[in-house]
Amino acid sequence: MTPAQPLLPPADWRDFLALTKPRVMTLVVFTGLCGMLAAPVPVHPVIGFAAILCIALGAGAAGALNQWYEADLDAAMRRTAQRPLPAGRMERQSALHFGVGLGAFSVIFMLFAVNMAAAAILAASILFYVLVYTVWLKRRTPQNIVIGGAAGAFPPLIGWAAATGEVALLPVLLFALVFLWTPPHFWALALFVKTDYANAGVPMLPVVAGERTTRRQIGLYTLPMAAAAVAPWPLGLTGAIYGVTALATTAIFGGMAYVVATRTTDPAGDAMRPEKRLFKYSILYLFLIFGALVADRWYA
Ligand code: HEM
Ligand SMILES: CC(C)=CCC/C(C)=C/CC/C(C)=C/COP(=O)(O)OP(=O)(O)O
């Protein structure tokens, strides 16, 4: 008979918050909010608040279920070893119950307080992140983040659907923008935390295909991403505030991606490696471009 495992002390609220990956969630919520505010239909503030709350809770639930499933990987990586499960501050079961409960609540609340379309897309994005990305693809293929990254591209569609009850060309282009943005965003980071993924046995592109291929792929994905970013203006879906901001911020993104794509060695003395600069800018970029979308709708 094996001795009973000692029970962990009850986890702190901060540990439950950490399960929701709150820093990544800020951008997920922001793109959802902007998708909602860019819709041609004004939303009642209470409905709008409920929709954004549901996106935040749903994304948080997805983050918790991701951490429940991959506590072993998180334990093997320096960047993630201090999360509540690998650090031993929480039982795995607690993370599972928290994730399932929060996810179910977010979808049901969205259904009754907002509408069916928004609830259905929210449910799809939670399931996509947890089942398609985390369970199915992450440990199997370096294309994991290309396909699985679709989960993080849904929020602008959810926001739009919350306002209008349907989807349209503009939110589909916003989905495409975030979808095509994800590989440069993530692979830029993966270039400088490559050893972490190698240690954990996760087949991320720099580990499996090497640095040169990863750099080239970052450059390649940036081209259709730029097209998706700028397209709403010539298509007449937005005005010049969005168009000019998209052109300028995307040109900067393109320039940085070009440097990353064509760099072969890590030059000594470079204070910040180009891929680190691109990763940081990728986050600012989405904030700026989605912010411009709302400014364009409201002030044009
Ligand atoms: C499968 C796709 C993605 C992967 C694998 C990925 C991975 C990562 C990783 C590993 C980090 C760094 C550290 C961390 O905070 O855990 C990060 C940071 C970040 N990601 Fe992503 N990401 C993806 C998609 C997205 C999407 C769709 C968004 C939002 C639209 C996003 C927003 C952010 C933000 C805001 C940060 C900075 C967090 C901070 O300040 O610490 N990511 N991402
Ligand atoms: C609306 C909704 C349900 C959205 C959820 C989708 C979401 C939060 C997408 C962002 C993707 C993300 C955080 C990937 C992190 O990868 P990882 O899990 O491999 O990162 P890690 O190594 O830090 O655990």
UniProtKB/TrEMBL annotation:
It is found in: Cell membrane. This is Protoheme IX farnesyltransferase. Keywords: Cell membrane, Heme biosynthesis, Membrane, Transferase, Transmembrane, Transmembrane helix. It catalyses: heme b + (2E,6E)-farnesyl diphosphate + H2O = Fe(II)-heme o + diphosphate. Belongs to the UbiA prenyltransferase family. Protoheme IX farnesyltransferase subfamily. PROSITE patterns: UBIA. It comes from the Bacteria. GO terms for molecular function: protoheme IX farnesyltransferase activity. One of its GO terms (biological process) is heme O biosynthetic process. HAMAP family: CyoE_CtaB. Its EC number is 2.5.1.141. Pfam families: UbiA (PF01040). It is an enzyme of class 2 (transferase). Its main location: membrane. Converts heme B (protoheme IX) to heme O by substitution of the vinyl group on carbon 2 of heme B porphyrin ring with a hydroxyethyl farnesyl side group. CDD domains: PT_UbiA_Cox10 (cd13957). One of its GO terms (cellular component) is plasma membrane. Carbon 2 of the heme B porphyrin ring is defined according to the Fischer nomenclature. Pathway: Porphyrin-containing compound metabolism; heme O biosynthesis; heme O from protoheme: step 1/1. It comes from Sphingomonas lenta.
